[in-house]
Structure formats: structure tokens, C-alpha cells
Amino acid sequence: MTFTPGVSGNPAGRRPGSKTRKQALVESLFEGEVAEIAQKALELARGGNSECIRIVLDRVAPVRRGRPVNFKLPVVSDAADIVKCFNGILHSCASGTLTIEEARALASVVEAGSRAILVRELEERIERLEAHL
């Protein structure tokens, strides 16, 4: 049986939560033994096995990927506000309130906002020009 290119045999796709054969096989291998394996990993970690310590800690207290930043972004509605916002970020970075990485992340958010403002301003200018024609 050949398939027609571009036509799915299952247009609805896989049901959410359904497992692949590989996932089902892996789960069946460990079925009923997860508690025993976890207990053994804890025993080895308590015994000083550094790899087991790392595994247990990764599951219990994973490395945090960032932190909440105590920096209030001002309302940005035009180009002048963008400049004020960037200056606030630079000042906070210079004073040590923000790290370089945090300042970079905030600046990218403000930059995205500035692009949105630019698009809005260009649309308004085009509408005014079209109204005069």
C-alpha cells in the first residue's frame, strides 16, 4: 500500500500522553523496582558515592536557572522611555544591583519592546501619509 505524498494517515496526530514503544519498554523494565532503585541510590550517596550524590541532588534540588530580579522596568511607550529604561539598566548594573547577564537579558526585553514601538510609530506615519493622499 502506497501513501499519497502530503496526506497524513492520521491527521489528528498522536494522542496527548501516549507513549512510544521505547518509553513503554523502559517503563516496563523498571516497573515495581523504582522504589528499590531510589533506595539503593540513597544508600550509595550516603556511603560517599559522588555520582549518586550528584544524581540525588539533581533530582531533589536542581541547579537554578536564573533568579528573580529586583528591578522595576518603567512603562515604555515611546523612544524617550526606551532611553530612560536602558539608562536605568546600565545604572543598576554599574551599582552592582544587576549582574551583566541580568542586564543583558533585561536589555533584550526592552529592545524587543522598542521594535514593537517602532513598528507602531511607522504604522501611524503610514496612515497619516495615506490620509493626506
**Main beta-sheet annotation:** none
**Structural class, judged by helices and strands?**
mainly alpha
Sequence stretches where pLDDT stays below 50 over 5 or more residues = none
Percent of residues in helices comes to: 55-70%
SSE topology string: HHHHH
How many E-type strands? 0
Distance between the termini: 61 Å
Number of helical regions: 5
How confident is the prediction overall: mean pLDDT?
Answer: 85
Molecular shape: flat
Percent strand equals under 5%
Oligomer: single chain
List strands and helices in order, with pairings.
Elements: H1 21-30, H2 34-46, H3 50-60, H4 79-95, H5 100-132
Describe this entry's structure for a reader.
The chain is an all-alpha fold and 133 residues long. Among the domains are: 32-63, no CATH class; 79-132. 63% of the residues lie in helices and 0% in strands. The protein has helices at residues 21-30, 34-46, 50-60, 79-95, 100-132. Helix 2 (34-46) crosses helix 3. The longest helix is centred in the last third of the chain and has 33 residues, at 100-132. It starts with 20 loop residues before the first helix and ends with a helix.
